[in-house]
Amino acid sequence: MEIFVLGCAGSGKSTFVKNFSEYLREKGYSVDCVNLDPASEPIYKASKDIRQFVKTEQVMEEYRLGINGALIKSVEIAANYADRLKCSGEFVLYDTPGQLELFIYSLAGKKIRRGTFFDLLYVYFSCGLNAHHRPRGLSFGRYAECSSLS
Ligand SMILES: Nc1nc2c(ncn2[C@@H]2O[C@H](COP(=O)(O)OP(=O)(O)OP(=O)(O)O)[C@@H](O)[C@H]2O)c(=O)[nH]1
Ligand SMILES: [Mg+2]
Questions:
Q1: Average pLDDT of the residues of the chain
Q2: Is the CB of 38 inside a 6 Å radius of any atom of ligand 1?
Q3: Residue 99: closest CA among 3, 13, 15, 9
Q4: What's the pLDDT tens digit per position in 39-65?
């Protein structure tokens, strides 16, 4: 099963990938974590890391872009390596940047999803006010039922 973790900035995506992968391994499953955030070093052991192909801080410097423009450019560059971001564990958890639109609407993000994901579940982390006072919002849905990801 492949799980695509989406959520706004700082909502807990990477923490979820780290903790859920550890939980699944304890249960005996083989798990691959894939970092699709070109701006962040993973906080878990990543089987595949988009930063092997592109680092947003270098894109900012090279193309003289701000953080958001550089993230768009980074995902465009990474789309050329979509097939090298595939994994084959029983569970594959994909961590994404907080800029949700990159992997929902952008052509490059779609290319990476389509080239990489199969039988996908997504996890959406909401970023409501007072999130620090209670557990983060979390919802699950089947890829096929999520029209915004088609
Ligand atoms: N209160 C609370 N804090 C959390 C939870 N999950 C993560 N955090 C904290 O929120 C901060 C951001 O967590 P990350 O996992 O880096 O969030 P992220 O969505 O990956 O952030 P970006 O990749 O920058 O978009 C960290 O300090 C975490 O320790 C949670 O469920 N509840
Ligand atoms: Mg993160």
A1: 83
A2: no
A3: 9
A4: 999 999 999 999 999 999 999 999 999
Domain boundaries, the chain: 2-149
Q: In Å, what is the CA distance from 83 to each residue of 24, 61, 71, 105, 140?
A: 25, 27, 20, 20, 26
Mind listing the pLDDT tens digit for each residue in 78-93? 999 999 998 988 999 9
* Fold held by 2-149: Rossmann fold (3.40.50)
- The full length of the chain comes to 150
53, β-bridge pairs: none
Question: pTM value?
Answer: 0.86
Ligand 2 mean position to 136 CA, how many Å? 14
> How many Å lie between the centroid of ligand 1 and the Cα of residue 111?
27
